Every structure is written in C-alpha cells, then in structure tokens.
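[agent] plan:
  1. take the single chain provided in the ticket
  2. run structure prediction with default settings
  3. attach structure tokens to the ticket
  4. add a short note for the reviewer (M.T.)
[agent] executing step 1
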Amino acid sequence: MNKKIYKCIKRLADIILSFIGIIVAAIPMLIVSLCIKLESKGDAIFKQERIGRNGKPFTIYKFRSMVVNEKQDAGFSVASDNRITNVGKFIRRYKIDEIPQLFNVLIGDMSFVGPRPYVYNDFKYNKEEELKVLDGIRPGVTGLASFIYKHENYILESVDNKTEYYREVLLKDKSKLNLEYKENLSFILDMKIVFATLKLIDGIRVSKNKPIYYPASERDIVKKNKKHKIKKEIVAKKQKVVKKAKVDKNKEEKIKTEKIKTEKSKVEKNKTEKQTKKSK
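[agent] step 2 finished; step 3 output follows
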C-alpha cells in the first residue's frame, strides 16, 4: 500500500477510535481523577513536554502517578520508586495512566501505534537516530519498542547506574526497533502491535525474514548490562594506556630538553674558560 494512503487511513482511524474511546472512558476517567485527588494534592492530569513528529515538542497528557513537585530528568522510573503513589502503582500496572493520551491522539499529536515520545533530556542523547524515526511519523500510545521493553521499570532495578544504562543502551536499542517499525509500516504490523499490547498474542514478527520479538526479560537486561560494563572497562583501559603513553612522552621530552640545556651550559662554560685563558 502507498505510504500516503496508509497515513491518511491511519489518521482517520485514530480520530474515530480516539473520539469513541473518550466517550466510553469518560466516567472511568472521572473516577480515576477523583481517586488521585483524594490520595494526594495536585492536579489529576500530569502534563509534560515530549518530542513528537519531525522533532517538534508537544504536551503529553497522563494521569498523575507521582507526588507533586517531583521533577524527572529521565523518561523512566523504577517499580520501587518512592515517589509513586498507591493509586499510581495501580494505574501504572494496568496502563490506566495512559488513557488521557486519547486526547493527544484526537488532536493529532500522537497516534495509537508508533514510537513512544521521549522527554528532551533523553531525546538529545540519541538525537540523530530519533529524528530519523520521527521524520513524518507521529509518536504512539504503544509501539514495537514499548512492547518489547514493557517491563523496563522493573528490570532496570537490576542495573547499577540506571540513567546511564537507560540512555546509553536501552534508548539506542529502542531507536533500532523504532527504525525497523518505520521501514516496515503496514496496517498488519500495527494490528500485531495492538494485539501484543493487549496480550492477545505473545510476540511480533515485523517481516518474514525477521525473528519473532518477545518482551525483554530481566535476564536480557542483565546480559546487556554486562556487555555495557565490559565495553566501559575496555574504553577505560584504552584511556589509561593513552594517558600513560602521553605521560611517558612528556617525560622523554623533558629529559631531552634537560640534556640539551646541560650540553649548552657545558659548551658555554668551555667557551668562557677558553676566553679567560686567552686573556691571561
């Protein structure tokens, strides 16, 4: 199917389904909002700037799941995060916190299926790749990468430096998956992602020559973390070798300059001695 036709039909489907979704979810959204406000102070809706289509920022809407005035530089949190409220734990577990994004889909900031939008602090770490992903593509409520890493807030707990690992390893891996999604755009793939998100199927095959993708486990994250640590150690060793080589070179240069100085001083001393002898 032609990509323009695919995008037009997809946008029309987004408008119709999000409008129906808002009407159906209106009462449940009011109940969730009330529960959030009863438990903790602050607005029920959490607003945050994310990076959308063609790298343009937009405001994403979610149900607030954390206490107010807790800023978050990275676009992730772990399961044991003490900022998450009791209601927040429940709505996060069942993805209820994502329901207000129906409004984002309706107004055209997002689509139901697409790459998840990042906060700017995460986006800038992988800017070139993410701009390729978001070129002409709306970010989604769910996507291939978000399905594979749907348990990342739990599995990141097994990692020491969470922010560094999230940005250096997971974001880059997600970008590869998002590019793969973009290269294979189709309604069939979108339906597979929706069915996998709703747990109607276990895995997703992007194309015939690709393996089936399943959600990443803690074991996969531990493996990637070990690789990341090994790479860091190799880089650190290389830097030490380079540093040592520089120090050795500086030492050699100092020795050479000192030798030249001593030789010069000897020559000058000999000259002065000869001149004194002649004068006598």
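[agent] step 4 note for reviewer: The mean pLDDT is 85.
[agent] ticket updated
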